[in-house]
Amino acid sequence: SDCEDIVRNLFHGRVPFQDEYLRPYTKREYLTRILTNLKHNHVRAEDYHRSISAADLIAMMNPSLGSNIKERATFHYSLKQYRLAISDLELYLSTNPEAQDAEEVKRQIQGIWATIATLN
Fold first, then answer.
1. Global pTM?
2. Which domains does the chain have, with CATH numbers?
């Protein structure tokens, strides 16, 4: 098909065409994609306040989207909003109890608490 040819040419045959590429987005998926792109643009500009705003909007539509919750935690951390970062990481763990990176996230939480302790 034409779509297969476009993918083959665009990626020089390195990416196999999948029928899933033709599946239409739901409105929620489409809006999530736009907001994710916006969030990443704000990250590139190091505008973490706006990155958090975009992540908040994504979280309203997809509250259990773990990657968004963890990213929002990093934005809070970058702004020295340590308790909010911990809150997001704890939310990530509670909504993704089987996460492969659960132990790493727990260590990050401990590290942030250690940072807070040095400030007092």
1. 0.82
2. 25-119 (1.25.40.10)
